[in-house]
Specification:
Among the domains are: 33 residues, no CATH class; 74 residues, Nucleotidyltransferase, domain 5. The protein is rod-shaped, with a radius of gyration of 46 Å. The strands form two sheets. A five-stranded mixed beta sheet has the order 6-5-4-7-8, with helices on one face. Strands 1-2-3 form a three-stranded antiparallel beta sheet, with no helix packed on it. It is built from four helices and eight strands. Helix 3 crosses helix 4. By secondary structure, it is of the alpha/beta class. The mean pLDDT is 78.
Length: 156
């Protein structure tokens, strides 16, 4: 190849077909600087995705239960005049009301008497785990027939 000096830092070479090719002297370092990765498009995509997720997250409706909390945090004191009517069922299906054994036929009369003494008292049934369900249902029916509709079950 034929080379000729051109003023400045450029050298002209004649290619195989006679066309001049110019090349910068010391251009290896400058080409390395141009080979850097441009991060601007990637950051643009990341910011667009961030905006997309922020906008879509604000429209997601959370599913849950509304809970009504009590207004004051004071523990409720139980008035001794409003005691509950506790009916216990023993392992052998014996019925105990107010620490007395009661016959199955007299459950309604006893609940009516205790309900007359304290009209706001609920009936709480405490069945033994090995007692029969028939006795528990009979006590619930007797309480309803006696006019007490606030009947609860408790572990006995």
């Amino acid at each position: 190849m034929i080379s000729s000096k051109i003023p400045g830092n450029m050298v002209a070479y004649l290619g195989s077909w006679g066309n001049p090719v110019r090349r910068m002297i010391g251009s290896g370092r400058e080409e390395e600087a141009d080979a850097a990765i441009n991060l601007t498009p990637m950051l643009d995509v990341v910011f667009i995705m961030l905006i997309f997720f922020i906008v879509t997250a604000s429209f997601v409706k959370e599913v849950g239960l509304d809970v009504n909390q009590p207004e004051d945090n004071k523990p409720q004191t139980v008035d001794p005049d409003k005691k509950s009517i506790v009916v216990k069922i023993t392992q052998r299906d014996r019925i105990v009301i107010a620490f007395r054994d009661v016959d199955r036929r007299n459950v309604r009369a006893n609940i009516e008497r205790l309900h007359a003494e304290n009209p706001e008292a609920p009936v709480i049934i405490q069945p033994h785990p090995e007692s029969s369900t028939d006795v528990m249902i009979h006590i619930m029916d007797s309480a309803r027939q006696a006019g007490v509709y606030n009947v609860s079950l408790a572990q006995g």
